[in-house]
Here is the input.
Amino acid sequence: MWSQLAVSLQSGNAYLILILALGFIGSVIIFERLIMLQFVYNVDFKKFLNNLRRSVQAEDLDRAVSICKNASYTSLPAIGLKALEAVERDPSSVRGTIEEETIDFLPKLETRIGILPALSTLILLIGVLGTIDGLWAAFDSIEILDTSEKQARLANGIAGSLNPTTMGLLMSMIFLTGHQILRGLAIRLTERIHYGVSVLLNLLAPQEVATYVSAPVMAPEASAPTESKREAAPTDSKIEEEDDSFDDASVEDIKDEEEII
Here is the structure.
């Protein structure tokens, strides 16, 4: 297999050259992302947060700033540095600054990682296309040959046509494996940064608990007597009116009886 691949490359197979060019691009992406995720963005989060916590609790902001600068110029130390600058400038903007810097940084962890599956699929399809083209050329060439040469030419043509697919499969497996490794590193870093951001929020922008004073509520029983008094007043007046009318009628009846007598 490897000798056939070498022979095809020496003969200048265009499909193999294209696959190798795309493979070089994918390899650069894998190595670049591996260096960034493993050595640039990745810091000793536990040590960094412990040192930062001690400095902030001791109210030594200058030392906390130097800790952030010495740790890294990106990732969680950069977010912490922006938060400390916001503390000195405007303490009320610390929470918003941390959220903005976190949202701005997190997409950098998965930059160009999503290209690898697409590049793997493209390389595999180019290999299949190269195989189809090689088979087509092999079957076309045997039409003008003698019977004795047809079998040898057809066998060599079929063997050579499988080289692009072989190279495409190899590159595709490498890129898919690299994609899974890089994605795992990115997810782990994302979880650590989320934890670090929570620690920064608790240190520099603790949640303020609002206290509410309940307004006095009038008991329904307090207003009930007044309403009952208001309602009782008309009834008493009605009773008095009825009593007055009753008294007037009784006096007139007595006068009539005296006149008759």
The chain has a mean pLDDT of 79. Residues 216-261 form one domain. The first helix runs from residue 2 to 10. The chain has two domains: 2-204, 216-261.
